[in-house]
Amino acid sequence: MKDEIKKACEIMQKGGVILYPTDTVWGIGCDATNEEAVKRVYEIKHRADSKAMLVLVDSPVKVDFYVSDVPPVAWDLIEMTTKPLTIIYDGARNLAPNLLAEDGSVGIRVTNEAFSKELCFRFRKAIVSTSANISGQPAPAVFSEISEEIKNAVDYVVDFRREENGHPKPSSIIKLGKGGVVKVIRE
């Protein structure tokens, strides 16, 4: 696992795009602060860059670095969740501008899965995590369902957890609005 993480970090540091296992489905990832790398992910997915993508971090502390004013309820949600939870925050900062939604918000998930957590920790920056599919097509639950087009388009395919065949679910998504308003986007 350590060699895979080292190689994936080297690729992302050079602005490359990786295919990697996360706490939910397999993801296409890159340095979330690199505008050119983010642009490549949109191109790989054939997705309009007006559709924001989420990022993974390895610890709640990192959320503060990427969000200007984290609502207090966010800390409770992060601490209490028992399954992967993406929270959409207003006031994103320190991220590639083309990664953010039109309203300046960003979805951030604190991962607790061993590989993606260690990858985020070693990379020391937020990592884009978007499902490994062409926009509009079903998200592949396992590595064997990822299209050859996606596999060939990235710079590096992580060689870890490829053989798993469970059916992980995408994360729950909650948007935290002004005044502590909580809106469930996906359960």
Description:
- The chain is α/β, with parallel strands linked by helices.
- The protein is 29% helix and 20% strand.
- It contains six helices and nine strands, in the order αββαβααββαβαβββ.
- β1 and β2 form a beta hairpin.
- α1 crosses α5.
- It is globular.
- The termini are far apart.
Tell me briefly what this model is.
The chain has 187 residues and is α/β, with parallel strands linked by helices.
List the helices and strands and how they pair.
Blueprint (H helix, E strand, L loop, with lengths): L1 H12 L4 E3 L6 E3 L5 H11 L8 E4 L2 H7 L5 H9 L4 E5 L16 E5 L3 H10 L3 E5 L16 H6 L2 E2 L14 E5 L5 E5 L1
Parallel strand pairs: 1-7, 3-5, 4-8
Antiparallel strand pairs: 1-2, 2-6, 3-6, 4-5, 8-9
Helix pairs in contact: 1-5
Distance between the termini: 31 Å
Spatially, the strands of the biggest sheet line up as 7-1-2-6-3-5-4-8-9
Order of helices and strands: HEEHEHHEEHEHEEE
Beta-strand percentage? 15-25%
**Which runs of at least 5 residues are low in confidence (pLDDT < 50)?**
none
Average pLDDT confidence is 93
- Judged by helices, strands and strand pairing, the structural class is alpha/beta
Helix content: 25-40%
| Rg on CA atoms, Å | 15 Å
> What count of helical segments does DSSP give?
6
Using the alpha-carbon principal axes, give the shape.
globular
Descriptors:
single chain, 187 residues, alpha/beta, nine-stranded mixed beta sheet, 29% helix, 20% strand
